[in-house]
Design a protein that fits this description.
By secondary structure, this protein is an alpha/beta fold. It is about 35% helix and about 15% strand. The strands form two sheets. An eight-stranded parallel beta sheet has the order 4-1-5-10-9-6-7-8, with helices on both faces. Strands 2-3 form a two-stranded antiparallel ribbon. Helix 8 links the parallel strand 9 (about 215-225) and strand 10.
């Protein structure tokens, strides 16, 4: 049974945390743990449908709507080879007409995912970036140019990635003044966590959609640390004052139809508490599939 809306997903794992030079390493173990948690949701499908208590509706979930492609060809000692493998996996899914759904791994993978998405699509690319941090560092002695702190900066340098159709959501607390200069010079839109909380999820989603409007394709890059550590203790870095798990689940439901690729990074099972963060990540991925099967209509 095919997905009702015609969109189907490839799940890729990228068990790599070699670029986690800040925060806590350990996200290499996330793909296996998230897959395990995802099994609890997939097994609730009956006769090609699953029931959502949130929407009070039955939703299509056909046999081929979510295909597990396994793990990419990670090279533990070689960041660039790993980023290339990640990009190749994403591009392969796009060229097969499927939506890539990537479970990392550290946040250096943002660039690899967007590069593969960019290279396999024509037209302009918008990035929806949920993250506590800006990831706009250009280069540093300790991290180099392709680190977990520079993925968004490198992705925005790709030829058809459009900064005016991109937005960073959930950013908070303190960062480098040089990143602020880049934001101002590039005109990169921001929806800080404090503003998100004041608006509420539905109003925030309206603002996000307005920013993304006009992009030919949108990739959603999701760092789990956008969620407050009270709800996601197993994150690569902790920043208080983040979004709630309910906030981000609601965002997935409302924004999934507008996005054609999705990744979740920085889930760290080594510091998690009773798999809370892996279970949240699995729920985010499952919500993306259920609510992303039907593409939003184009004007």
């Amino acid at each position: 049974m095919a997905a009702a809306g015609g969109r189907s997903f490839d799940l890729w794992g990228v068990p790599y945390d070699g670029a986690a030079s800040l925060g806590w390493p350990g996200s290499r173990y996330a793909p296996a743990r998230v897959r395990q948690a995802l099994g609890w949701m997939v097994m609730r499908v009956q006769d090609g449908r699953v029931y959502s208590s949130d929407t009070q509706r039955l939703h299509s979930f056909g046999e081929d709507v979510l295909r597990d492609r396994g793990d990419t060809n990670v090279v533990a000692h070689d960041l660039m080879a790993t980023l290339d493998a990640c990009a190749a996996a994403v591009a392969d899914s796009v060229r097969q007409g499927r939506l890539p759904l990537v479970i990392g791994g550290d946040d250096s993978l943002l660039y690899g995912c967007v590069k593969g998405f960019h290279d396999a699509h024509g037209g302009t690319i918008g990035i929806l970036h949920f993250d506590a941090h800006l990831d706009l560092l250009d280069e540093s002695r300790n991290q180099g140019r392709y680190s977990q702190s520079s993925g968004m900066r490198r992705a925005l340098e790709l030829p058809r990635v459009s900064v005016r159709h991109s937005i960073q959501v959930g950013v908070r607390n303190f960062n480098f003044p040089s990143s602020r200069r880049f934001i101002e010079d590039a005109g990169l839109a921001q929806l800080p966590a404090a503003q998100f909380v004041r608006l509420g999820a539905e109003a925030a989603v309206r603002l996000i959609r307005a920013q993304l409007e006009g992009a030919d394709h949108v990739f959603w890059a999701f760092d789990i640390d956008v969620v407050d550590p009270a709800f996601a203790p197993g994150a690569g870095a902790h920043e208080p004052g983040g979004l709630t798990s309910r906030d981000v689940l609601e965002c997935i439901r409302l924004l999934a139809p507008y996005c054609e690729g999705f990744n979740i990074v920085e889930v760290n099972p080594l510091i998690d508490h009773h798999d809370m963060t892996s279970i949240l990540a699995a729920n985010l991925a499952y919500h993306m599939v259920v609510f992303g099967q039907d593409a939003a209509p184009r004007d």
